[in-house]
Amino acid sequence: MMAPPAPPPLYTLRGAGSPLNALHFSCYGGHTPLLFSGSCQGSVNVWNLITRRAEKVLDGHSGGSVIWLNTLHSKDALISQGRDMRVCQWDLAEGRSDVTDTVWTGSVGFCRCSLLEMGPGTWLLAHPGEAMEEVKIIEMPSKRPVCSLIPEGKLGMVMCIKLWQDPGSGPLLLAGYEDGSLAVWDVSQRSVLSCASAHPEPVMCLDFDPAGKRGVSGSSEKSLASWSLDGQHRLQLRNAVALVNPGISQLCIRGDRKIVASAGWDHRVRVFGWKKLRPLAVLQHHTDMVLSLAFSNHKDPRDRLLAAGSKDQRISLWSIYNQD
Amino acid sequence: MHLPRQVLYKMQALTQDVDVRISVGQCIRTLTSSKEKEEVTKALQKLASYLNDQPQSRITSAQQEEFSRAHYTRTLQFLISNINADWLQHITAAQRTELWDGLFLRGPPDQALLVLMDGIGTVRGPSAALDHLVSILERFLQSSRLAILIWSRSKGTGPSDSPQLRETLLGRLVALPDLTANKLHHNNKTLFLPQQYYPLLAREILTVLEKTCQALRDGKDCSLAFVAQVLGKACVHGNSGLVFDVLAPSLSSNTRSDMVWQRVCWKLLENTPERWLESVITGLVQAVSRPETLSRIMGNLVLKNKKAHFVLTHKLLLLQYKYETRVLRVVLGYLAEDRERRPCLIQVLRALCQAWANPSAVRHTPLEQQLYVSRALLLCVALLSDAELLELRSELLQCMLGGMQSHLDSSVVRVRRLGMVVGECLSSRMDIDGAKLKFEYEQDDETKELLSLLTPPSEETEPLADCLDLPQEVKGQPVPSQAASVPQTASADPNSDLDSDDDLPPYDMSTDQEMSGAAPPCYLRDCLEVFLSSDDPVRVELSLQAVEGLVKRNASTAREVSVELSKVLLHMEDKYNTEGFLSLRQAAMVALTVTDPVAVTGYLTTEFYSMNYSLRHRLDMLEVLAMAAQELSQPIMDKGVQSKGIHPVTSAVSLYPGKDPVHWRQVVERRIQSKTKRLSKGVTRPPAKPTPNRYAPVAGNFFFPLLRNYDRPQVTFDLLGSDHLVLGRLIHTLGLMMHLAVNAPVATQMGRALLDFVWAVRYHADQMVRRGVLFAVCSTFLSMPSESLLVELRDQLFETRAWLADVAEGDPDADCRNLAVQSLVLLEKSLKTGLNPTALGLQS
């Protein structure tokens, strides 16, 4: 039986005017579903997914590339990280578009921040620090520094991080470093729980599924590494998944833990089944590197979308594996 | 008067004889004249009493013998000649069956059979009399009188009769189905059909053999001569398959442990007359499934009998090639089975080696036979012991090297592959210092089968099958059910596996291929530049991929650089192991030729005959020319134009009625259309839009330059000599060009030139060349207008036909034969269609 061809994108959003480094959906709740995109020129576009037009363009990073976007408790509290070494908090309520607060990170690298909700109204934000290998963790919105995590060995620049918390224990942090190793940090103890060399090249991106205790990481090579944490938070490398072309910019596990998507330097988005990392689809549309990915958080799983932002200045939206 | 005792006895016997004659004469007279029922019955009873199985009779055995010897045939003949007599209608059916029919069924069966067959032959049919005789013959066969007949002649002292009688009897016995079929036509009985009769005959033979064995055990003498003759004659009449289907299994199981049976079988075959032995042996080897069985049945016949030796070691292996591999296995296994027969196997191996390695055989025998000989050779080599191999090593090596050379020289792929496979197998069997030959060839069923011949089939299973003597299906049954159950359990696992994984169906990911870094070139001149100067494999590959499209898109630029680019492409080498290099290059060259036919064909055809090209290059040129010609001859498919072309007329009419003077015609046409009933079914298609044939004006440019220099051999290229591969392709290409030039004005000249050209090489030794020639002839006959064809062929018509008929009959290559037949048909057709009276006269 011939497999059907991969679907075309549902629609594409153009007009960002520069490569798209960051994407974030805000579709939960009754309001208009929105997609935030951060561009290379430092602007953040707010796309209305009903009209499929940019509602607003926010400019707060003074030309520095926006590499990470997220929202605190509602769509109106946007938080953005730029390569101007600042993390900005925005107030978008009632048509405003003001930067309410900024955090100076001092990082010149490409490492994206990671946000973890600790309780009502409090978050932990992990961001790369001034020193290349340093990860700083602060409390939001109070900006109170919690700790600074610097590995003892020479692992090189920190490339990507992910904060999470197991129920009944302190927050944990996964970090990928320039020499290809992954480290699990216990944030409260400020100590490395385990470390594993997952790639021969720098770790470009990672995503972790706390419920399954499994994660994937990508690099500039022709394979994805997959690994898991055992009960003592020890990293165990599992089998790698071969890719056709090298280079992964971002990896995203969908909220329902069914699929994982990779943004490839070969212009393609690849979709894998999350359980066994079985290749499922190759989405071809872009004409340049895909830089960012995001799964939407629509209330109805059937509306859930996959967005991919590319260096060709377009965002493609895909509806894939979301029936039942 | 005092007479000696002997004389007295003799006289007594004579008087008895006279008695019998008188009483039989009386009975017959009664039957002729009497109308009384009782008298008739009595006479018949009297006659019946002379037959030996009448217990209560007062007839002495001497009288019975006398009756059987002298009067039985006459009596039966009399009965048949009076079959329509009135008294026969008067007696009851039961009486008739008992008395009248019984006379036929209880007497000596040989005489009865002869009389019956004669009767059936002479009585006019269809009639009740004939039906009656046929039913008696049927019962004669059913009551196994045949076994008694054959046995009566095998018993220690069989009746010594004249050879003529014996021949006649054999003829009747064996040809019974033919005789009855000829006489009875559609009313023939199923029992007389060969499918029924010969198995019956075989069963009767088995009965007789069984009796013979019994008699031998009892110490009595028997002669197997008559049985052997019956068997031989039945086989030579072409019924060996039917006979041995019954005989072989029983013989196989009986000879398994019984020495008497074995001896009887050997004697049976030894007694078979020389002239019939071959068909008996071929029938036997085909019916037997294992060499051991053949060995048991045949014994060392191959050593004792010259004919058997010839058939088994020569004819079956080297002269015929119709048998299955199983038969080869049986024959060679039989030769290898016994120490005394082993020299025969070596002798066979030598002959096979010679046949396989002979270059002339490779060229002139049909491929099927070569395959057959190769199979036999491999089987033979597999049977050799290591010591024998060592002894024969130098011969085998010579055979292998010579044979491989002649096979690899061939222009037929299958022959080459055959050489490679056999060479590999031989080398692996000989084990020359651990070195083995290894070729790269595509595995297909044929090569797999050949390779499998070196490993002997499993030994354990088949003897069981042999002795159980059960039909194959019964034994085979448990196996399929097992086989069916195994995959089920096996397939359950992956299924559950799939279920455990996300039940998400994957999409087609075949388009997910490696990306190349560089951008493809946009201009033709860039490509040219890259080909000439670049060392970057990626750029060369991209240019190669792009060049065909660029040529097609920019026809004018392509024309400017066509010859130069062709030159570059032709000389280009696959330096970087580019994927699909050959097809990409070819496609580019074809596109160039199509875009600028005159210049590029000029270049290619000149280069074809120039120095310093490899075979590959010349073949490439021919291929490019052929493909370009093909592409040019096809109409350009432009879908947009076609779909628009369907309705323009009607729309014009409805929009501007009466304005244009042309429109009245369309109006009329529409009216006619609406009033006409069309009987054809289906959607009426729009007529095909005529487009000019792009090939016709340039066909000559493709064709004639290729014919210019073929007979001028050069240092590196000798078309009429060793380069027959190119010659074959050249002729084939010319034939294709001819075929494509149908309806072109230049076709006549082309055809004339082509026929002249191929005439010289029509008996070429290489089959590829001959195929090409026949293809060219075929396409000429197809493409040339028939009247000009007749004019051209006027002088050579008879010769051509004789040549074609000759090829159709005797060429070793099957393709050649088919093509020749096709050409003949085409020739006849064009003779008939384009006919004028003179041609008619010629044909008759």
* Average of per-residue pLDDT values of chain B: 82
Number of extended strands of chain A: 29
- Give the biggest sheet of chain A: 5 strands, antiparallel
Helix and strand sequence of chain A: EEEEEEEEEEEEEEEEEEEEEEEEEEEEE
List keywords for this structure.
heterodimer, A: 324 residues, mainly beta, Thrombin, subunit H, 5-stranded antiparallel sheet, 4-stranded antiparallel sheet, 29 strands, B: 844 residues, mainly alpha, 43 helices, 72% helix, 0% strand
Describe this structure in words.
Chain B: This is Telomere length regulation protein TEL2 homolog. Chain B: One of its GO terms (cellular component) is nucleus. Chain B: Residues 476-517 are annotated as: Disordered. Chain B: It is found in: Cytoplasm; Membrane; Nucleus. Chain B: Residues 496-505 have a biased composition (Acidic residues). The complex is a heterodimer of chains A (324) and B (844). Chain A is mostly beta strands and 324 residues long. Chain A is 0% helix and 53% strand. Chain A has a domain at 20-104: Thrombin, subunit H (Beta Barrel), CATH 2.40.10. Chain A has no helices and 29 strands. In chain A, the strands form seven sheets. In chain A, strands 18, 19, 20, 21 and 22 form a five-stranded antiparallel beta sheet that branches. The two termini of chain A are 23 Å apart. Chain B has 844 residues and is mainly alpha-helical. In chain B, α1 runs antiparallel to α2, α8 crosses α10 (194-217) and α38 packs antiparallel against α39. Chain B is elongated.
Brief overview:
Chain A is mostly beta strands and 324 residues long.
SSE arrangement:
The complex is a heterodimer of chains A (324) and B (844).
Chain A: E1 11-13, E2 20-26, E3 34-39, E4 43-48, E5 53-59, E6 66-72, E7 77-82, E8 86-91, E9 98-104, E10 114-119, E11 122-128, E12 135-140, E13 145-149, E14 158-165, E15 171-177, E16 181-186, E17 191-197, E18 203-209, E19 214-219, E20 223-229, E21 235-237, E22 241-242, E23 248-253, E24 259-264, E25 268-273, E26 279-284, E27 290-295, E28 306-310, E29 315-318
Antiparallel strand pairs in A: 1-29, 2-3, 3-4, 4-5, 6-7, 7-8, 8-9, 10-11, 11-12, 12-13, 14-15, 15-16, 16-17, 18-19, 19-20, 20-21, 20-22, 23-24, 24-25, 25-26, 27-28, 28-29
Chain B: H1 5-33, H2 37-49, H3 61-81, H4 86-90, H5 93-106, H6 109-122, H7 128-142, H8 145-154, H9 163-184, H10 194-217, H11 225-255, H12 259-271, H13 274-287, H14 291-298, H15 301-304, H16 306-319, H17 325-337, H18 342-357, H19 359-364, H20 367-383, H21 386-408, H22 413-430, H23 445-452, H24 461-468, H25 472-476, H26 478-500, H27 524-533, H28 537-553, H29 555-571, H30 581-595, H31 597-608, H32 615-633, H33 639-644, H34 648-655, H35 663-675, H36 699-703, H37 724-740, H38 747-760, H39 767-783, H40 786-793, H41 797-810, H42 814-833, H43 837-843
Helix pairs in contact in B: 1-2, 1-3, 2-5, 3-6, 6-7, 6-9, 8-10, 9-11, 10-11, 10-12, 11-12, 11-13, 13-16, 14-17, 16-18, 17-18, 17-20, 18-20, 18-21, 20-22, 21-22, 27-28, 27-29, 28-30, 29-30, 29-31, 30-31, 30-32, 31-32, 32-37, 37-38, 37-39, 38-39, 39-42, 41-42
